[in-house]
Amino acid sequence: MPSEAALPSAATSVKSRGETTGRRMWRATYQQFEFKLGLFFLILLVGAALIYPELTNESPTRMHIMQRFWPPAFLPGGHWNHLLGTDQLGRDLFIRSLIGLQNALLISVSAVIIMFVVGAIIGLIAGYYGGIVDTILMRITDAQLAVPVIILAITILTVHRPTPESVTLVLALSGWPAYARVTRSVTLAERQREYVRGAKILGATPLRIIVQMISPNVLPPIAFVAVLDIARMMIFEAILGFIGIGVQPPTPTFGNIIADGRQYLINAWWISTMPGAFLFTTLLGINLVGSSIERARNKVLEGRI
Amino acid sequence: MAFLATFLIRRLAQGVIIVLIVSFAIFTALRLVPGDPARLILGPMASDAVVEKTAQEMGLREPIPVQYVHWLGQVVHGNLGTSFIKARNGSEVAGSRDADALGDKAPVMDLLAQTVPMTLQLAALALVFAFLISVPIGIIAGLNAGGWFDRFALYLGSAFVSIPNFWLAIVLALVVTAELQWIPSIGYQGFAYTILPAFVIAIEMSPVFMRSLSISVASAKQRNFVQLADVRGLSKRRILFRHILRNAAVPVLNIFGVQIGALLGGVLIVEYIFNYPGVGLLTVQAVLQRDFPVIQGVALLSACLFVVINILVDLVSTKIDPRLDF
C-alpha cells in the first residue's frame, strides 16, 4: 500500500542532469543487490510456471492412484517424478503449484491494474476540482476504507458464485482507496504549479490538463509502488481460496490446495506446506523487487541521485 | 479547550457520515442477495404461506430504505436485532419449522458482547508481540541506517510480509501444537490459546511498523536539533528517547491508524483457522450462513472502531508533537 507520508512531492523531481527520471530510477533500482535477488526468484518461478506446464504431459488434475501421498523428492520415499510430492488423489503438487501461480498472477496483476486505474481517476478528479467534489469522493473513499475488506469480500463472493472475474473485481475493490488518497494528495500539490495555472489561463479544458499534464507527472511514481500490491493481492487471493470462496476447484489455486491438504496435515504435511513455501518464495521475490523499486523512487524523488 | 471541542465535533460528524454510508451500503448489498432470509430461517420444509407471513412480520417486504431507517432506529436504542441462526443457548437452530423459534434466537448485541472481549484480548496480545518484534529492530536499523543491521531488518521485513498468514497459522498449529505440544491452540480453553494466533497476526503486522519506525528514526537522526543535542552534551539515552523517538512516533502512529483495517482482516482469518471464539469466527460463520443481522452488526462495529481509532491517533499525535494542527 503506498503511504502518503512516504511520497515526496513530484516537485522535487525536476533536476534532470540530462537523464530522464525513468532512467535514473532504473539505474538506482538495478544497483541494489535485493533487486537482483528478487528478480532471480521471480524469473525462476514465473518462468517455470509459464514454460514447464507446456513441456510436460503431466496435468494438474491428473490422478495417479498408485502414487498417493508421495513425499517431496528430497525426502526419503520421494521420487523425482514428483518434485514436491503428491496429494491425497495422487496429483502432482509441483504442477498444481505452477498452475496455481499462473492463476494467482493473472488475477492479482489484473486486480492491481484495475484498482490503480480507478483510484487514480478518483484521486485526480478529487484533487483537481477540490471543494464539494473532493469532499464527496473522499468521504466515499474513507467509507470504503472503514469496512474491513475481508468482510465485504466474503459477503460478495458468498452471494455470487466466485469466478476468476469476480475474484479479481473483489480484490480491486479492496485496494483502490489507497491509490485514490495518494493520487489526490499529490494532485492537490501539483495543481498549484505554474504550468497548470498557465494552461488554465490559456484555456485548456480540465480533461486536457488532467490527462495530458498532471497524470504524466503524478502517476508514474505511484505506479511503480504498485508492484508491492501484487504480492498483497496474491496473499488475499489465496486467503479467499482457502476459505472456499476463491476460484473453485478443480482449477488449482494456492488457497484451495492448502485447504485440501489441511485434513491430511499429520500424515502428509507436505500437501499444505509445500505449495505454501512455493507461494512464499514467489512473494519474497515480488517484495524484494518492489521494495527496491520503492527505495530507488524515493531516492530519485528526493533528489539524492 | 474550545479548539479541542471543535476538532472533536468536526471529526465525529465526519465519522457519523462514514458510518452511515458503510452501514447503508452493507445493508443494501445484503438485501440484494438472492435468497429469502425468511426461507433461510424457516428451512426448506416450511410452506410458502408461512414464509410469506414471517417475512411480513420481519419487515422484509418493505422497500430497502424503509427497512434501513427502521433498523437504524433500533440501533440507536442499542438493539442490533437478533441472529437468524444462532440460538440463545449457543446452538444453531436454522431450518427449524417451528415459527416460534424466532423468539429463542440470540440478540446480536449478546453475540458481540461475548466475542468482542475475546478478540480484544487477541488483538492486544498481537500488538504487544508486534511491538516487541518491531520496535527494537526498527530503532536499531534506523540508528544504523545503511549498515548491516539495516539490511538485515530489510530482509526480515520482506520475509515477514511474504509469509501468507493462513499458511503460517497452519504450520505453527502443526509444529508447535501437534508435534512439539509446546503451546495449545485450536479452540479456546485458557489464555495460552491466544499466544499462537496473536503471534501470527504480529508477524503479519510488524514489517510495516519496523519499516516506518526505521525510516522515521533515520530521518529524525539527521535533524539539526538531534545533531546539536550531541554537542550540548546530552546523554545518548536522553537524545534517543526525548529527541529521536518522540519525533519518530508520529508517523508510526499514523501508520497504525491505517493498519486497523488490515489488523481486523488478519484477526478474522486467524480466528477462523485456530477456531478462536472471537468476532472474526463469528463473522465468517455469519457470512457463510447468511446471518444478515450479525454481519450488519459486525460491519457497524468495525466502521465505528475505525473512525474512533483514527480520531484517537490524531489526538495522541498532537499530544506528542504540539506543532501539529488539528
Write the layout of secondary structure elements.
The complex is a heterodimer of chains A (305) and B (326).
Chain A: H1 21-30, H2 33-55, H3 93-129, H4 131-146, H5 149-159, H6 164-190, H7 194-201, H8 206-243, H9 254-261, H10 270-301
Chain B: H1 2-31, H2 37-42, H3 48-58, H4 64-76, E1 82-87, E2 105-107, H5 108-143, H6 148-162, H7 165-179, H8 195-221, H9 224-231, H10 236-274, H11 279-288, H12 292-320
Antiparallel strand pairs in B: 1-2
Helix pairs in contact in B: 1-12, 5-6, 5-8, 5-12, 6-8, 7-8, 7-10, 8-10, 9-10, 10-11, 10-12, 11-12
Q: Short summary of the structure?
A:
The complex is a heterodimer of chains A (305) and B (326). Chain A is 69% helix and 0% strand.
Overall description:
The complex is a heterodimer of chains A (305) and B (326). Chain A has 305 residues and is mostly helical. Chain A has a single domain (22-301), classed as MetI-like fold (Orthogonal Bundle), CATH 1.10.3720.10. Chain A contains 10 helices and no strands. Chain A has helices at 21-30, 33-55, 93-129, 131-146, 149-159, 164-190, 194-201, 206-243, 254-261, 270-301. In chain A, helix 3 packs antiparallel against helix 8, helix 4 (131-146) crosses helix 6 (164-190) and helix 8 packs antiparallel against helix 10 (270-301). The radius of gyration of chain A is 23 Å and the shape is elongated. The two termini of chain A are 24 Å apart. Mean pLDDT of chain A is 83; it is low at 1-16. Helices cover 73% and strands 3% of the residues of chain B. Chain B has 326 residues and is mostly helical. In chain B, helix 9 (224-231) packs across helix 10 (236-274) and helix 11 (279-288) runs antiparallel to helix 12. Classes of the chains: A mainly alpha (305), B mainly alpha (326). Chains A and B meet through helix 4, helix 5, helix 8 and helix 10 of A and helix 1, helix 6, helix 7, helix 10 and helix 11 of B.
